[in-house]
Amino acid sequence: VQLQASGGGLVQAGGSLRLSCAASGSIIGINVMGWYRQAPGKQRELVAAITSGGSTNYADSVKGRFTISRDNAKNTVYLQMNSLKPEDTAVYYCNAEKLWVGVKYTYWGQGTLVTVSS
């Protein structure tokens, strides 16, 4: 499975960005797709995740501001980020989990940098 992320950039506080991540390759069995982020000097953390059935999970810090969605036909997951804050600055990584023949596989895309200026 290959994950291609796009959509990062520089935005002022209060602004919006939309991240996209397209999965390709052996995509059968992918269940959860999501976004993690890693700020300088900090551990990577879950931002939001969505199952193939549409169930979502968000970090408390982004609830009400970020929305994750998924287009199963396009094998693409999106992260709409509104009301961005400087503390949202991080490298954002797309993630996919696949269950195949009883084994869970985890895949990561390349990071995309989001910088929020104050």
Structure description:
The chain has 118 residues and is mostly beta strands. The chain has no helices and eleven strands. Strand 5 and strand 6 form a beta hairpin. It is elongated, with a radius of gyration of 14 Å. The model has no long low-confidence stretch (mean pLDDT 96).
Number of helices: 0
The biggest beta sheet reads: 7 strands, mixed
Low-pLDDT stretches are: none
Structural class: mainly beta
> What string, H for helix and E for strand, traces the elements in order?
EEEEEEEEEEE
Helix content: under 10%
- Give the integer mean of the pLDDT values: 96
Strand content: over 45%
DSSP E strands, number:
11
Oligomer: single chain
- What's the Cα radius of gyration? 14 Å
Question: How would you sum up the global shape?
Answer: elongated
Distance between the termini: 37 Å
Describe the secondary-structure layout.
Elements: E1 2-6, E2 9-12, E3 17-24, E4 30-38, E5 45-50, E6 56-58, E7 66-71, E8 76-81, E9 90-100, E10 103-108, E11 112-117
Parallel strand pairs: 2-11
Antiparallel strand pairs: 1-3, 3-8, 4-5, 4-9, 5-6, 7-8, 9-10, 9-11
Keywords:
118 residues, elongated, mainly beta
In a few lines, what is going on in this structure?
The protein is an all-beta fold and 118 residues long. It is built from no helices and 11 strands.
